[in-house]
Amino acid sequence: MPWRRRAKPARPCIWRFFDAPGFPEEFKPYAIGQISALDAYLALDGGVTWTYLSPPPVHFAPGTRTGHYRTGLDHPVVGDDGQARISYEDYESALVDEIENPRHLNQRFTVGY
After folding, report:
1. Which of 4, 24, 28, 44 can bridge 19 by disulfide, Cβ–Cβ 3.0-4.6 Å?
2. Of 48 and 9, which is predicted with more confidence?
3. CA 19, 23, 24, 27 torsion: positive or negative?
4. Which residues 6+ apart lie within 8 Å of 111 measured at CB?
């Protein structure tokens, strides 16, 4: 499995695809920014309510809005084929659903089929 654990005192079970061998160099600057943002949210001691939605690490592209998706927390949501994927359209639905009916306050969550 290409996921490695990242040690962090406040939250020791976070996995980063970024640390996997073969992570594309051209995406590293963007990924580093997102890692820093998530770390900043995780370090908050209260007073601010936040939610962080992570896309699948690889299969994230335009497609069809199905209206169906599953959620997870610190691991990508994978299908029967072992792949984590979701269309932009269903990702958008998950984001709007979370805004309208918050279920992941002060958490990172992921979506996939």
Report:
1. 4
2. 48
3. negative
4. 53, 55, 56, 69, 70, 71, 72, 77, 86, 90, 91, 94
